[in-house]
Amino acid sequence: MAKALTENHDALVIEGDDFYAGGIELRTDSPASRAAACIDWTRQRSVLEALAARREAWWRAFDWNAFDGRLCDEPTRVESKPVVILEGVYAARPELADLLDLRVAVVAPDEVRLVRLAEREGAIGPWERQWHEAEEFYFRAVMPMAKFDVVVKDLEV
Fold first, then answer.
1. Distance between CA atoms of residues 71 and 51, nearest Å
2. Which long-range CB contacts under 8 A does 151-155 form with residues at least 24 apart?
3. What was the pLDDT predicted at 47?
4. What is the largest CA-CA distance in the chain?
5. What is the reported pTM?
6. pLDDT tens digits for range 63-72
7. What is the CATH number of domain 2-153?
8. Domain boundaries, the chain
9. Which of 71, 73, 86, 142 is most buried, judging by how many CB atoms fall within 10 Å of its CB?
10. What integer pLDDT is reported at residue 155 of this predicted model?
11. Neighbouring residues of 106: CB distance < 8 A, sequence distance ≥ 6
12. Can you tell me whether residue 117 is helix, strand or coil?
């Protein structure tokens, strides 16, 4: 959905998963701890600050292909645009609130979400489930739907 918005607006999308920081092992800590550690919001913040100042921003994304905890060698570089979309589950976290003009939640029914996850991940095992628990905590205790400016019900598979 975020990428579709770039087609009609002078916008850029920043993938929240580029800032993944939760580790590659199964974790035994609480869902609250996992939700707090999942995304490196301090790196997101520096990117958003640069873009808000109309400067180029860059970051090194988590290397999902290597999946060994390292960041990609090549940085992602983007020029500022009038609309910046920070995409991802944790994109509306309170630590970024002063840099966000609009917080939008796109909500899919559980059955649709699970189909999409299975297609993307191949399987949903213990590693994926630990992050589902963290997301449930985040949306229950940190960013409940009532805190979003807009909630979109996404019913497409």
1. 21
2. 151/104, 151/105, 151/107, 152/1, 152/104, 152/105, 152/106, 152/107, 153/107, 154/1, 154/106, 154/107, 154/108, 154/112, 155/108, 155/109, 155/112
3. 98
4. 44
5. 0.91
6. 999 999 999 9
7. 3.40.50.300
8. 2-153
9. 86
10. 61
11. 1, 152, 154
12. helix
